[in-house]
Amino acid sequence: MPKFSMDRRQFTLGAAAAVTALVLPGKALPEKALSITAVPDGILSQSGAAPASDAQAMDAKIQAAMAKLTPAAQAEVEMKVASIFRKYGDKLNDEQKADIRRIMAESQEGLEKMRTFKLNNGDQPADAFSAAPDEAKLHKDMGGKK
Amino acid sequence: MLSEDILFLSVTELSKRIRARQLSPVELTESYLERSRNLGPKLNAYATLTPDLALKQAHAAEKEIAAGKYRGPLHGIPYAAKDLLAVKGYPTTWGARPYADQRFDYDAVVIKKLEAAGAILLGKAAMIELAGGMGYRFPSASATGAAKNPWNTDYWTCGSSSGSGAITAAGLAAFAIGTETWGSILCPSGFCGLSGLRPTYGRVSRTGAMALAYTMDKIGPITRNVEDCDLLLKILAGHDPEDLGSLPEAEAKYSGAEEPRGKLRVGWLMNQWKEISPEVNQAAMAAREVLEKSPSIALSNVSLPDGPWEVAAGLIVSVEGATAFRELIHSGRVAQLNDPLGKIGGYMNEEISASDFILAQRIRAVLQKKMEEVFTKVDVLATPTLPVTAPRTDANLDQELSFADPIGGIGNICGLPAISVPCGFGQHGLPVGIQFIARGLDDAKVVQAARIYQRQTDWHRKRPQLS
To answer: Span B146-157, mean pLDDT?
Structure first.
């Protein structure tokens, strides 16, 4: 994930890129430094099979992403990819399948890092549930009867 | 047709003239409609124009004002609403081809509030399909095509409130309503030289708005200056029992930003952008200098806490989005979306485990505490809205908007208010923005900081040259 994302352009990608460095007042980085991700062939045609060179480039990216992962993490990626293909494989072309494999592989590293974040047993999730829902809503849901 | 000098006035200025009957709401509406018809298609700014409704509302406003029934500063003011807000009788497409024919038989609460205040709906603003809910790789990820930046039409406005940015920057309406789950108000505001406010989560009702991420979606104004943001939040804010994320009325209500009583403590973020383009850095440093010289501001350097905030935020959006669009994903109709990533994103998001989702929510709670600590030291954080200017409309965003955005992730999973205001220009004549972020419910403080800055600068008065 991040990757800068506007309403998550690519939600689960590239957490490794989330490591930031100091930007000091008055310190500007050279413009060429803005090309953070080395994905020169990232543009995919929207239909049809990718040319062989594109397919090879995609395969290289998948291999590179997988190489950064532990065997267990690689297995998790393969399991998830297999699950997607089992459920939706008939809706996907080869190019989309390769894209999915690449994104799942690239996003796994961030997931692994998140899982290492130290939490205590009592650290509760910030969810939205409340056992005391708004009284006005409750009143309305009960057809105005209390 | 009224002159551009009128059409680019702020809401605050327009309302003074309308109240004094120096400006006709009907004439103003007709002028914006004509401009919208002429320029809107060139910018891919609108999903739908609503001229019949607009003129009906304009005539009603004119009649009421003439009769001495002035409703307030939005009475007779034309605006546009992002096309994910339900408007009875008109298409609400969510920017996506699978929903091209969708209509609702009710108005979103935000639309109702604006109507009650006397505002005039000119049309539905174009947007990124499903607000980017399935992911997207290209600015063309919209049923209406890539929205073009009025400052340079070879460049994008940013998403997902892409049309709201184009409309306001091009002077096609007095203001527009946008929404943000992650970046969708601040980014178009930054790229288009506008003032955009992301309210505290739960302050503005989302009833009648498309849901992407139930615990992160927010609705806010995109305007020409800070005063308009302040004014609009006063009207939009308030409790809604139909919205489970809505704050209680005492907290949701917004009374507006008074003048600060003491110095506002502004923390300049030192670790937000890993890299920044030279012209953005130059504008940002000039903005910092303005803040530093202000007698109303005590400026210091601040760093964000380290942690996997962006991953957690992205994961939460992904899971909530996968449930929000479950039917679309399962039916395979995501294939009808424009963007290649949007066609497959939902399938991948469904694979995130419940365990990882709860883990992300637990990290979210830890982060909330850490940010509370940050806000004991400062009232407001400041940093460039983005480290670059707008990319081209044909850009691959994976390459050109590909960088870490910790405060974006933090601000949105913690529900923090933020505002972006223009602070200069970069290459190709494209605007640069600076953002201010505050503790939850301290919306007034981001307004105060931006107001102090805007009083010392005139970037918000600049307007693009459009034929």
So the answer is: 98
Q: Residue A137: closest CA among chain B residues belongs to which residue?
A: B241
Entry pTM: 0.91
Give, rounded to a whole angstrom, the gap between the first and last alpha carbons of chain B: 14
CB distance from A102 to chain B under 8 Å? no
A contacts of B135 (beta carbons < 8 Å): 8-11
Would you give the distance in Å from CA B389 to the centre of its chain? 17
B41: which residues sit within 8 A by CB, 6+ positions away? none
Bridge partners (DSSP) of residue B220 are B178
**Cα maximum dimension of chain A:** 68
Q: DSSP label at B431?
A: E
Mean pLDDT of B214-226: 98
**pLDDT the model gives residue A142:** 57
3-state secondary structure A129-141: CCCCCCHHHHHHH
| Cα separation, B413 vs B416, whole angstroms | 8
Q: Are strands B418-425 and B195-198 parallel, antiparallel or unpaired?
A: antiparallel
Residues whose CB is less than 8 angstroms from the CB of residue A63 and which lie 6 or more positions away in sequence, other chains included: none
Indicate the residue type of B181: T
If you average pLDDT over residues B57-79, what whole number do you get?
A: 98
Average per-residue pLDDT in chain A?
70
Give CA–CA dist B80/B173, Å, rounded.
Answer: 7
Please report the pLDDT score of residue A127 as a whole number: 74
Two structure tokens written together for A95: 């190019």
Helix (H) / strand (E) containing B299: strand B297-302
pLDDT value of residue B427: 95
User: Does any CB of chain A come closer than 8 Å to the CB of residue B222?
Assistant: no
ipTM: 0.93
Separation in Å, CA of A111 to nearest CA in chain B:
7
Burial B273-290 (b: 16+ CB within 10 A, else e): bbbbbebbbbbbbebbeb
b/e string for B400-419 if b means 16 or more Cβ within 10 A? bbbbbbbbbbbbbbbbbbbb
Q: Check the CA dihedral B324-B328-B332-B337 and report its sign.
A: negative
Q: Which residues contact B393 (CB under 8 A, 6 or more apart)?
A: B139, B140, B146, B148, B153, B154, B155, B156
CA dist A112 and A106 (Å) reads: 11
Listed residue (A17, A102, A42, A112) closest to B348, CA to CA: A102
Q: State the alpha helices, DSSP H only, in B44-176.
A: 51-66, 109-116, 162-169
| Residue in B201, B198, B194, B193 with CA at minimum distance from that of residue B183 | B198
Q: Could you tell me which residues are beta bridge partners of residue B264?
A: B297
* CA end-to-end distance (rounded Å), chain A: 47
Structure tokens at A99: 């894209």
Determine whether the interchain pair A37/B399 forms a contact, defined as Cβ–Cβ distance below 8 Å.
yes
Distance, CA of B142 to CA of B119 (rounded, Å): 27
Taking only the tens place, the pLDDT of each residue in A7-29 is 445 444 333 333 223 233 334 43
